[in-house]
Write the structure tokens for this entry.
Amino acid sequence: MNILVTGGAGYIGSHTCKALAKAGFTPISYDNLSSGHEWAVKWGPLAKGDILDRARLEEVFLQYKPSAVMHFAAYADVGESVAEPLKYYRNNVAGTLNLLEVMRDHRAVDHRRTNQRDTDAGACHHVQSQSACSDRRVGTRRPVRE
Ligand SMILES: NC(=O)c1ccc[n+]([C@@H]2O[C@H](COP(=O)([O-])OP(=O)(O)OC[C@H]3O[C@@H](n4cnc5c(N)ncnc54)[C@H](O)[C@@H]3O)[C@@H](O)[C@H]2O)c1
């Protein structure tokens, strides 16, 4: 079963790929290598691409037909995110929306082609995402609720 791992060439993503392969899944790393490393992709294929590039995402979905997505592609430097918030919103927020839309559209494409239900092969509607607490609202209550 193919699992698309965005940010699969990064720290968290590459370890996730290792665990996925050990569990019998095939991790497909989707990464633009902006901070990740090609050498870190060892447990499945690397599909170079950007989560902001909808056409490329669509191409990779059609090629690998992932059953689920684990989403780790992000900028993750807390200091820089404060200095350049728009850069972070574009990549992390707009990129995530883009990914979710492609997942939705991919499912729609498969439905039209095969007349199958969501649960059938080719439909991708499971997503798991990792984010740091730096993207949550700063408040007075501790601990910060998920
Ligand atoms: N490292 C930690 O300890 C930690 C802890 C909690 C949460 N997180 C969160 O996990 C996520 C990943 O963190 P990390 O430490 O692995 O960072 P990382 O920089 O090592 O990995 C991020 C990966 O995403 C890729 N990437 C970035 N923007 C992309 C884009 N537009 N399209 C495609 N690929 C893109 C980078 O090339 C890189 O390989 C972040 O959301 C981070 O906040 C990390």
The pocket of nicotinamide-adenine-dinucleotide is lined by residues 7, 9-13, 31-36, 50-52, 72-76, 91, 95, 130-132 (CB under 6 Å). Residues 27 and 117 are 24 Å apart (CA to CA).
